[in-house]
Amino acid sequence: MKHEWRKHEKNLYVPKEKPELITVSNQKFLMIKGTGNPNDKSFSDKIEVLYSLAYAIRMMPKQGYTPEGYFEYTVYPLEGVWDLTEEGKKLDYLNKDELVYNIMIRQPDFVNKEVVEKAFEIVRKKKPHPLLDEVVFDTLEDGLAVQMLHVGSYDDEPKSFELMKQYIEENNLEIITLAHREIYLSDARKVEAAKLKTVLRYRVKRK
C-alpha cells in the first residue's frame, strides 16, 4: 500500500488550528541553506533542486534501480527552519532580507547515503542543476515540540505564533530557540493566500 504522509502521519502533518504538544523523532532530510528574501529567485531555485532529487529517489524503480526496502510513497512536503541574522534580530520589524533558512524535504527510512548518491547521479545526467553541490543529506530531530496549523497568508503567521507562545507559557514549557519550523501543505503558486495551510512548530523543553 502506498505510504501517504497525510493519512499515515496525521499527528505531524494534519494538526489542529490550535497549539498542541508532540514529540518528533529523528527524520532524514535533503537540505539546502540560504539567506535572504524567500520571494527572490534564489529561493525558488533551491526548492527546485530539492524536488529534483526527491523525485529522482521516488522514481528510481522506473530508472531500473530499486533501493533495498523501497516502498511506494508520496513525496513529503517542503519544510523550512527559519531564523534571522544578528542584524535582523535587532530590528523591531521583520526584514525578509535578513532571514536565514534551511529548507528541506523529508525522505523515507529506506533512503541512505548510497540512495542519495544515486539520485545525484540521475539528476546530473538528466537535468544538471548549479545548486546540486549545496544540497546535504542528514538527519534532524525536533524532539519535544509545540505545533499548530496556520491557515492564511505567511505574513499573518505572527498571530499563530502568539497563540503558541501563550500555550507554551501556560503549560510550563519554554522555547529552546526562536528559530522555528514551517511545513508547507499548500503550493503557494496555486492556492490563494487566505487558504494556504502551513504547520508551524517550535522546539521546546519543560521548565
Automatic annotation (TrEMBL):
Q: Read off the SUPFAM superfamilies from this record.
A: Probable bacterial effector-binding domain
Occurrences of domain GyrI-like small molecule binding (ranges): 18-200
What Pfam family is a match for this entry? GyrI-like
Q: What is this protein called?
A: GyrI-like small molecule binding domain-containing protein
> Which species?
Alkaliphilus hydrothermalis
